[in-house]
Amino acid sequence: MSKSKLGFQRQPYYLQDQWIEHVRWSDSYSMKIKLIDDQHMEILRFVNDLLNNKEETEADKHEYFKDVIGRTVLYIKNHFATEERIMLATRFPGYEDHKKAHNGFTLTVIKSAKDFEDGKRLVLTNFTNFLRNWVLAHIAVMDVLYIKHFKRFNICCTMSDTGLSTEDIVNAAFEQPGSDLHLCPVCRGLYYSQQSVEDLEKEWNTVAANH
Ligand SMILES: [Fe+2]
Ligand SMILES: [Fe+2]
Question: Ligand 1 mean position to 129 CA, how many Å?
Answer without folding.
Answer: 18
